[in-house]
Amino acid sequence: MKGMAMTQPDMNQLMQQAQQMQAQLQEAQREIVASTVEGTAGNGLVSLTLSGSGEVQDLTLKPEVVDPEDVETLQDLIVGAFQDANKKLQALAEEKMGPLSQGLNGMGF
């Protein structure tokens, strides 16, 4: 009977690992929220800064992109810069959280 108990995972050890993973996940989330990413469009004619929580922090338009005759291009560039920043934010989240979520899956969570 005693030999069988050895093959059982140690619950205390599993709980400790889970708590460490939780702390690492929270730290990664804090790092993401504290970060900023910049998205650009039109070879830098439009740039947009997003916080890690997804809020727009800054928007910069080069004067030459502001054409009253062609507002649609400017709108497209702003949307493009926002999408670029969003992709970078997702990549940052993946970079910070990816290894941790793989670790959690490996532990059976």
UniProtKB/TrEMBL annotation:
Compartment(s) where it occurs, according to its Swiss-Prot or TrEMBL record: Cytoplasm, Nucleoid
Main subcellular location of this protein, as a coarse class: cytoplasm
UniProt KW Cytoplasm keyword: yes
Pfam families, A to Z: YbaB_DNA_bd (PF02575)
A GO term for molecular function: DNA binding
Entry keywords, A to Z: Coiled coil, Cytoplasm, DNA-binding
UniProt feature coiled coil, ranges: 11-38
UniProt GO cellular component terms: bacterial nucleoid; cytosol
Family listed: Belongs to the YbaB/EbfC family.
Function: Binds to DNA and alters its conformation. May be involved in regulation of gene expression, nucleoid organization and DNA protection.
Subunit structure: Homodimer.
Protein name: Nucleoid-associated protein CRES_2064
Annotated source species: Corynebacterium resistens (strain DSM 45100 / JCM 12819 / GTC 2026 / SICGH 158)
